[in-house]
Structure formats: structure tokens, C-alpha cells
Amino acid sequence: MKTEKGTISVALVNETLALAAARGVDALQLAEAAGIAAPMLASPKSRVSSAQYGALWVGIARALDDEFFGQDSHRMKFGSFIAMTQTALTARNGAQALSRAIGFMRLVLDDLGARVETDAERVRLTFVEREGTRPPAMFAYATYFIVVYGLLCWLVGRRIPLIEARFRCAEPPAAHEYRLMFCDDMAFDQPESYVDLSPAFLELPVIQTANSAKPFLRDAPASFVVKYRNPGSLAARVRKTLRALPMASWPAADQMAARLNVAEATMRRRLKQEGHTYQSIKDDLRRDIAIGELQQSRRTIADIAASVGFAEPSAFHRAFRKWTGMRPTDYRPARADLTRRAESD
Predict the structure, then answer these.
(1) What is the mean pLDDT, run by run of 10 residues, along the chain of 345 residues?
(2) Domains defined along the chain, listed by start
């Protein structure tokens, strides 16, 4: 069974490509190199795999020699994240790792930084913007935070709960996707920009080593750049359980809770804390399995429809259009025209 990686809204893909295009890079060529076809970019509901987005991220960072995509007056040169990881890897605990990560970002960026304030209830990362510079867009805040946060979560071996997030910028078109990255308690047009984290991670030991860093860095940024997904989180356990079962045998919420040895109310509460519901996990998993099968397998669309719980291909076509705004055939890699036309019929 393939590991569930999730998918990413094309709205974020287009934001990323716009940054490359603004700096003279052929954005469409980079998208195609990452396996993202032009029709997908034009469909607001379409989604790409984390692997595709990861490939795009690396492609743009290489082309610009800037892992911050030109969003700061000083480039974060390609390879900076590797150096940042190595700097934080020898920290004793979460607190020291966070300090090192923020300090590293201060060295490589001029316009955007962060300061850390800690109390018994939260760890607040307040964004600091250099005077006289243009206020950052949401994508800049997200790039900075997710790189630091993803590294920090990996170092301590767990997803650090986010309490709330506030940003000075206007609400972006992809606000829902940013809430998936951060948390539900998120607001825009605020007097300052900050993210509050639950403080328990501060005393957690750094558990990673030079050996575990190799696969982490090999899979980055797809493994962390959008949302750090800890395999030990409850949502990940739910996804893993569902993927091991035929879709027709997916259990009801009470049965899933029993499988996980928790009370149903506890399961619902913990999933909510992680930004999910049981139903949303099932819906997103059906969509992501379908997208993965369309992109990676040669199974017919009728077979894929059946595998994700649709008795009739026509029902799958309707659901897929609702999920992505596109036909299932639009997600197929380039193949013989006859095959594509036959599956469209």
C-alpha cells in the first residue's frame, strides 16, 4: 500500500509560479518539468501531489538560486536549508533548536525575521519586518514559518500543535489551504503577524541524527513545506487504518475509535485539534487516492472509480469534477491520444 502523501491546491502552485515568473523564469517550463500540466494550472479546484509540488519547489529554488523565491532583498541561496538543518541538528532540545533555526534565518534574510516570546501558555513567533520594506504577502510568511516549523517538528519527532495565527496581510484567495497549513484560528488584516505554538516541545529532546537527516533532506521539501504530517498523529493513524481497508469496509466513527483504542469523543476532539474531522479525512483520502492512481498507474478509470467506492464511473466523474474542477483523464500523464479519448467516453 502506498504511503498517503496528500495533495496541494493549485492556488498555491500558481502563487509559487508567479514568484518565479516575476523574476524572469519560464514558469510553465518548470511546472511541466515537475509533472504539472498547463490545464491543471487553469482549473481553480485542481490539486497536485506533494511530490509534484516538491519537485516544483526545488526547480524554482535552483533556477533562482533562492530558497525564499525572491521574497526578500537577500537571497536564501540554494542549499541553505541543508545548512540550517545541520546547524539545528546538534541542539539539545526544542527550545535550542528553535533558537538556532530563527538565528539561521536572521543570517540569510534581511527583510523578514522573527522573535520568540515564551510563557506558560504558548510560544509566540512574532514576525519582524524591516522598516521601509513592502509588507510581506501571505506566501512569504508561510514560506518562512513552514520551513522553520517543519524542521522543528522533525527534530523533536512530533507535530507541534498550533494555537492561533494572525497576519497583517489581507486574506489571500487560498485562505482555506493556509488554514490547513497553520490552524483554524487564523485571521488576517491584523495589527501584527505572529503564530502561537503549544509550549510542550521546548523541553523535548532532539531525537534526530546525521543518519536520519539523509532521508529527511532527500524528501524535502515535499515532506515539510506545506504541512508537517507526523506519522504518529491521530489523523495519520486514521488515514493509515483507512488505507489498509477496502473502501467498502471503512468503519463508522465509533468503530474507528474502537480500532484506535480511544473513546469516540476523544477521537473527534483530538482530530479537531489537528485540524480535521473523521469525515474530512475520508473525503480527502478518496480524492487523493484517486489522483495518485490516475497519475501513477495504468488502471482504467472504471477500475479506479470502483477502488474509491463508486459503483458507476459516471458517479466518479461527477465527484471528481466536484473535487478538482477537471475530468479524471486530465490527471493522466501524457499518453497515446487513443487511450485518453477512450477513457473520456
Answers:
(1) 63 93 93 89 84 88 95 96 96 98 98 97 97 93 93 91 94 85 88 96 95 85 56 77 89 96 95 83 87 85 89 89 86 54 46
(2) 1-64 (no CATH), 78-230 (no CATH), 234-344 (1.10.10.60)
